[in-house]
Amino acid sequence: MSTPIMPGAEPISVTEGSHGGVLLLHGYTGTPQQLRPWAEAFARAGFAVEAPLLPGHGTSANEMLTTQWSDYTQCAENTYKKLTERYQHVFVGGLCSGGSLAAWLALQHSTLSGLMIINGFFKPAHSEGVSAIQRVIQSGKQFFVWPTLPKQVEDPQAPPVLAYLQIPFAPMVSVEQARAEICQHLSEIQSPILAFTSRHCPKDEQDDTWFENVTVPVEHISLERSNHVATLDYDKEIIETRSIEFALALTKNKRQQSQNNAA
């Protein structure tokens, strides 16, 4: 029997929307709780929203041990396809490693309407880093344990971030290998991009130059007051407002293009 989902970490699903669909993806060991204000803002603006709980997340770190990158991509792919069955315009957003998943989807689907990435990290791990993780696993160690979660939000009024204190090593191998692969293909992304980077985010948790490697239009917004989980931080309203503007503008442009082509 699987472990119950942490209260507050449940997947988010808003099935009705007049403007299109939005898929939001949380990061490694995180949960949809970090995305809830973002998701609710899109829902209020008239979008259907899905923020799935990735396999092994939001329950126990022990359950996450048996998962890998392919489980996360399958979850993201299935959710994306369900949205595309109902909506012509589907946007994908991600926080941290959720940004890597979002970029992976954009590489699989050239018709993806737009890509929104918050504190994305696209620097490939050095081969010796992956080898070091593998040696730790071979030694029998399964987790890196935080005594307390590191600071991820600047706003003292923000809700506590729901995430594991134990970081499973085994899934990290496939995640790092996938990130290295994605880094080699960023220039192939065909969807417009909205990139957010937090000023207070540790440098090993984001890459504020990754979008220089793409060829599509990119709008970059610096979040001056926020840390890693910016969706719960001081600048969350900037993220919400600019993301909705980004999606609505692209939806309007594509509709106009369709009307012009039909004329």
Total number of distinct structural domains: 1
- List SSEs in N-to-C order: EEHEHHEHEHEEHEEH
- Note the beta-strand portion: 15-25%
Fill in the CATH topology.
Rossmann fold
Which CATH first-tier class would you pick? Alpha Beta
| Terminus-to-terminus distance | 58 Å
Enumerate the strands of the largest sheet in spatial order, edge to edge or round the barrel.
1-3-2-4-5-8-9
Task: Spell out the CATH superfamily.
Answer: Alpha/Beta hydrolase fold, catalytic domain
Structural class determined from secondary elements = alpha/beta
The Cα radius of gyration reads: 18 Å
The number of strands is 9
| Dominant shape | globular
Characterize the main sheet.
7 strands, mixed
Low-confidence stretches: none
- CATH hierarchy: architecture: 3-Layer(aba) Sandwich
Mean pLDDT: 93
What is the share of helical residues?
25-40%
Count of individual helical segments: 7
